[in-house]
Amino acid sequence: MSEKPRSHSHGHHHDDEHEIDGGLVHDLPVFARRRMITLLAGASMAPLLAACSSGSEDSPSSSSSSSGSSSPGSSSSGASSTGSDCEVIPEETAGPYPGDGSNGVNVLEESGVVRSDITKSFGSADGVAEGVPLTITLTVVDQASGCETPKEGAAVYLWHCDREGNYSLYSEGVTEENYLRGVQETDEKGQVTFTSIFPGCYPGRWPHIHFEVYGSIDDATAAQNIVATSQLAFPKDVCDTVYATDGYSESVPNLGRLSLETDGIFSDGYDQQLAATEGSTDKGYTATLTVPV
């Protein structure tokens, strides 16, 4: 498959420039083009869909939460798609800080990028991303099989901002770091697991994680033949709990000005991208998502 279009950007200065998220500003042109293509493609199906509709609305569902632990900050929330709900993961922009060579630096061709623990920088860099521990598990499945067949031997490149909202390789102060970026090959269950930290919330974007799916580990480390590009979202209740801890103070007002329904990426629906998230601030969280391709 051909490579997806990319957005381009200059520097990333959350603190110095009180603009609406540099990422969102640069994401929207690509986002708009993709949504227009989707809308045009869907227009021809409108009469058929209208005839078959049972009257249900295609609106984002609210996340649920539960607490069954005595640990401080314990919570569980999120959603996942299975069986009859199986659809290809929504295509999203990689944003201006992909690190895959499409906008400047290419970390994918560097020795050490294939790893499960992405909290530390590798190579000549030695920075460590601090924050509430987070384990991310993505399960890549074949959509054509009804999401029943795992995609063994595929690869996922995953990256996100640190708790201050900065992206390694791009943001001022961390341009020499490459933490919170890594590649994993899917196992026989179609799964990859990354050890990381909970990302912060910067102005203009709901807390999220970027990822690209490749057909193989060789394609991923050569930064070629991307199968899918998307983003993972977090439930609000979990974000509220995490952001009440030390180091995330700037995320509190940023999150307060946002919602999943108004975010420039997730506003058109986020059911397939809302990670099932559980855990606590003292023991860490797990986030899981099924990724049909």
Main pleated-sheet profile: 7 strands, mixed
Low-confidence stretches: 1-72
| Mean pLDDT over the residues | 81
Alpha-beta content class? alpha+beta
Structure commentary:
By secondary structure, this protein is an alpha+beta fold. The chain has one domain (22-54, 72-292): Protocatechuate 3,4-Dioxygenase, subunit A (Sandwich). Helices cover 16% and strands 22% of the residues. It has helices at residues 22-43, 46-52, 217-221, 236-243, 251-256; strands at residues 65-66, 75-77, 133-142, 149-150, 155-159, 181-185, 191-197, 208-214, 226-233, 276-280, 284-292. The strands form two sheets. Strands 1, 2, 3, 4, 7, 10 and 11 form a seven-stranded mixed beta sheet that branches. It has a four-stranded antiparallel beta sheet with strand order 6-5-8-9. The model is unreliable at 1-72 (pLDDT under 50).
